Each structure stands twice: as structure tokens, then as C-alpha cells.
Amino acid sequence: NRCVNMIAHLFNAPLGESETAVGVGTVGSSEAIMLAGLAFKRKWQIKRRAEGKPTDKPNIVTGANVQVCWEKFARYFEVELKEVKLREGYYVMDPLKAVEMVDENTICVAAILGSTLNGEFEDVKLLNDLLTQKNKETG
């Protein structure tokens, strides 16, 4: 917890004086992705069970440019991988196409800040705005 709190303070996390940060430290990005994916899946399962809905078909949406770790996460933990295909001259995930792939079984949409192909950042702001709008419309 000491390291997690140090990182929280480093990034100015909004913590009160008596609050401590909650999180897990990892050695590398692959480990972080696996742990985050499991947390997404577990939170989704808990919500679905409370609603009396099935929990056997979770999915994630990524661009085709993501680290191979996202593919491994999907395979290892039985999560469908929905991949936004890239197109000539555009080597990051298209936010509009990503949001079209989201459904009630989507546990996360993974945006990349530094594509494995060319280092380009995906448009996280637009992706967030589109997902927020979709959530307002569909719940």
C-alpha cells in the first residue's frame, strides 16, 4: 500500500487527509493489463448476477494495434475479443467503430497511448465522450 499511495500522491489523486489510495502495484504492463481485465470481468459479473442476467459471454473491445497481452487476457480468461480493424493510413483504433461494437456484455474498451505500430496515441477523449453518450442512451 505504501507504493500505491506514493504513486497516488505523485499523480495528485484526489484523496482526503485521512484517505489512502486503493490499488495494486505491478512490475510490468502485461501484469497490469491482466489484473485490470480480471477486475473488469469480476465487476461486470457481480452486476449481471444482481440483475439476474447471464455472465458467460463477456467481451472487450480493442484496436488491432494493441499489445498481444490483450489477446492473451481474452484467451486465458474466456473473454471474447472484439477487434476494431485498422485501415490504410490510420493505424489506431477508430473510436466510432469501437463504440459500435460495445454491447451489454462489454467489460472494457481498451485505448492505447502509444500504439505498438507507430507510437501514436488514440483519441481517448473522443472515445470517452462517445461511450458516455452511449451509456446515457442504453444504460
UniProtKB/TrEMBL annotation:
The reaction(s) annotated as catalysed by this protein in its Swiss-Prot or TrEMBL entry are:
L-glutamate + H(+) = 4-aminobutanoate + CO2
- Does the keyword field hold Transmembrane helix? no
Cofactors required? pyridoxal 5'-phosphate
According to its UniProt record, the EC number is 4.1.1.15
Q: Name one GO biological process term.
A: L-glutamate catabolic process
Q: Which GO terms describe its molecular function?
A: glutamate decarboxylase activity; pyridoxal phosphate binding
* Keyword Lyase listed: yes
Source taxon at top rank: Eukaryota
Pfam families for this protein: Pyridoxal_deC
Q: What are the record's GO terms for cellular component?
A: cytosol
Q: Which InterPro entries match?
A: Glutamate_decarboxylase, PyrdxlP-dep_de-COase, PyrdxlP-dep_Trfase, PyrdxlP-dep_Trfase_major
Give the record's keywords alphabetically.
Lyase, Pyridoxal phosphate
- Alphabetized PANTHER family for the sequence: GLUTAMATE DECARBOXYLASE
What family does this belong to?
A: Belongs to the group II decarboxylase family.
Record protein name field = glutamate decarboxylase
